[in-house]
Design a protein that fits this description.
By secondary structure, the chain is of the alpha+beta class. Pfam families: DMFA2_C.
Length: about 625
């Protein structure tokens, strides 16, 4: 029986918000595969289904090397892989009352917190606007909770409603900033708020509902794995008040904001106020907590403020769409990799837009800056490293592939993932073979290995999936590489990965969950979270051989359909009913398709009446 997350489907920007809530399937522990990292007098041969490898590292030497790394990097493997408290927390029954019910309408109730994160003991101001005379707030911690995905932690009493003033739009950056709103309530983050990801559900007395997301962080945590909520990317796509980093009220890129503020709600049509959390992040959160892993949570802004936190954990997780990165944020991940930590990139298009933060009237790092055109950025020629052009672009190009191994290429696509290196330990327990396909797992954005872009020399391509994007042939790649300090970097190369972890298929397009994606994710989480993965599982370089001698051919572009000439007189616009014409225009990296329908005249429509529907696909 298919269940929808909400009683009414809501269109999100750049994400999927409808899932079937079924049990997650995992299989098998991590298999210790071949290792060629360190020379040894004793050789061990490991056979796989399609090849044999002679390894040169014994288990004893591996343990010795990891011990040496721990001495060199004292916080390596700081905490156990599993957490009894996380497991116990998620054995609690939870509730489904976190879901938005009824027929939600924009503008009925909305709000934001004065910070994107909080620590236990903090007291946080919230700013709520509603047309209703009263409302209440319920806080839910998100996780597995026996498949219910949330547990009720706190609720307010009945609060007086208040319609806040319109938020000013600051020129010349078109920044919507609601710092003119009055404080509605202060919420104390008590010990009941176990660190994790939270949705605060606003419930108006007229029944309307909307979310406010919050990350409750634990600054003292040395958990094996830290999950990073990508709030900088959420805010970039947030068009509350009519402006995002993509377009203004008329949908034009020319009127977009160059600075966006966290001092405003998330738009109603962006996760019902929850941003990108539901589609691109919650499935991984629920999956990791179901496994009982020792996970802790931060977000983009907290990482900006505390970049050294990466060194407190064995592994960091970048979620389904983690596009917007400051120099400080990126340096934090790179420093982690350099010091034996590991990173899972579970999406595509990560670290593509360079940003910087500025303070707002409400606090530090509450304004996100992204000019894109370097000549418009006031720092151009003064501090080019912080000019907010794309990471691979002038004036201080630093392609994301130097860290990830892959780079963003194109969207939108919907294609199968095709396995090319089934012998990898990453595929242990999946029964994958050369050419094994997972339908619809690649999309809507994808990453690819490009040999002339900067990348680790020992990059291992695990999947190499042929596809067409805008009728141009590409490959989407999945990759892994190890580091001499014991770390590893894994990249799925597709946005659909995280959503595929949830137990169901979206109703329109996208991936169906498969034990394959769940097993691979479990394998990598466990290996990376244990520490020393680069020693236990050194990558086997194959990127160039696969690129220049692909095991599967590229797809052939579809030729345009050319109609035969005709001498038949075309019908009048309404002689055969309404006429529709689809046109596409491209501005920069944004493609807009418009459908114009000519209506037949009736008693209430003129012969020239038209209706236009516009669908926008906004890549990267």
């Amino acid at each position: 029986m298919i269940k929808q997350w909400f009683s009414k489907t809501t269109t999100l920007k750049r994400t999927i918000t409808i899932f079937v809530l079924a049990s997650l399937v995992i299989s098998g522990p991590i298999a210790i595969a071949h290792s060629i990292w360190s020379p040894s007098k004793t050789a061990v041969t490991t056979k796989t289904s399609n090849r044999s490898k002679t390894t040169t590292t014994t288990a004893k030497e591996t343990r010795k090397t990891i011990a040496s790394l721990k001495a060199q990097f004292p916080t390596l493997s700081p905490g156990s892989l599993y957490s009894a408290s996380i497991a116990a927390e998620n054995r609690k029954p939870g509730t489904t009352s976190w879901r938005i019910t009824g027929n939600p309408i924009p503008g009925q109730i909305e709000g934001f917190a004065s910070s994107t994160f909080a620590r236990v003991g903090d007291t946080l101001p919230f700013y709520i606007s509603t047309i209703s005379p009263s409302y209440s707030i319920v806080a839910y911690r998100m996780g597995w909770y026996q498949g219910n995905l949330a547990r009720l932690i706190w609720k307010s009493g009945t609060l007086p409603g208040h319609l806040q003033p319109q938020c000013p739009i600051l020129a010349p950056t078109n920044t919507v900033e609601c710092s003119n709103w009055s404080q509605s309530i202060k919420i104390h983050i008590s010990k009941a708020f176990i660190p994790g990801d939270y949705l605060f559900k606003l419930i108006a007395s007229n029944g309307q509902q909307q979310y406010i997301p919050l990350t409750v962080v634990d600054p003292t945590s040395n958990g094996a794995i830290v999950v990073i909520n990508a709030v900088s990317t959420w805010q970039a796509y947030n068009n509350y008040g009519g402006y995002s980093l993509y377009h203004g009220p008329n949908g034009a890129n020319a009127t977009r904001a160059t600075k966006v503020s966290f001092d405003r709600p998330y738009a109603f049509d962006f996760g019902l106020g929850g941003g990108d959390f539901l589609g691109n992040e919650l499935p991984l959160v629920a999956f990791a907590e179901k496994l009982g892993l020792n996970v802790t949570y931060v977000n983009s802004v907290y990482l900006q403020m505390h970049p050294s936190l990466i060194l407190n954990h064995n592994a960091a997780v970048s979620l389904g769409h983690d596009e917007y990165y400051s120099v400080t944020m990126r340096d934090a991940l790179q420093n982690g990799v350099n010091n034996g930590r590991s990173i899972l990139f579970l999406g595509a298009n990560a670290i593509f837009r360079r940003i910087r933060f500025e303070p707002s009237p409400m606090g530090q790092d509450r304004i996100e800056v992204n000019y894109r055109n370097p000549y418009q950025d006031p720092l151009f020629g003064k501090n080019n490293a912080r000019v907010t052009a794309n990471w691979p672009a002038f004036p201080d190009a630093n392609n994301e592939s130097s860290l990830i191994g892959l780079q963003y290429e194109c969207n939108p696509v919907n294609a199968p993932l095709v396995v090319t290196d089934p012998s990898s330990w990453i595929f242990s327990g999946t029964n994958a073979y050369l050419g094994f396909k997972v339908p619809s797992l690649v999309g809507p954005e994808f990453d690819q290995y490009i040999p002339y872009s900067p990348h680790p020399s020992n990059l291992q391509i695990l999947a190499h999936s042929p596809l067409l994007c805008r009728n141009v042939p590409y490959f989407s790649d999945m990759s892994y590489y190890s580091t001499p300090t014991g770390g590893g970097v894994f990249a799925t190369g597709t946005n659909y990965w995280v959503v595929s972890l949830m137990g169901g298929c979206p109703s329109f397009t996208g991936p169906c969950p498969d034990p394959f994606t769940q097993t691979v994710t479990a394998n990598v989480l466990k290996a990376f979270g244990s520490g020393g993965v680069g020693i236990i599982h050194p990558s086997i370089p194959n990127a160039n051989s696969i690129y220049y001698n692909p095991p599967f051919p590229a797809l052939t572009p579809v030729p345009p359909i050319i109609s035969a000439p005709t001498t038949t007189k075309p019908p009048t616009p309404c002689s055969t009913g309404p006429k529709s014409q689809v046109t596409s225009t491209t501005s920069g990296s944004k493609t807009t398709s418009s459908t114009t329908t000519t209506l037949c005249p009736t008693a209430t429509t003129s012969p020239s009446a038209t209706s236009t529907t516009t669908a926008t696909v906004t890549p990267g």
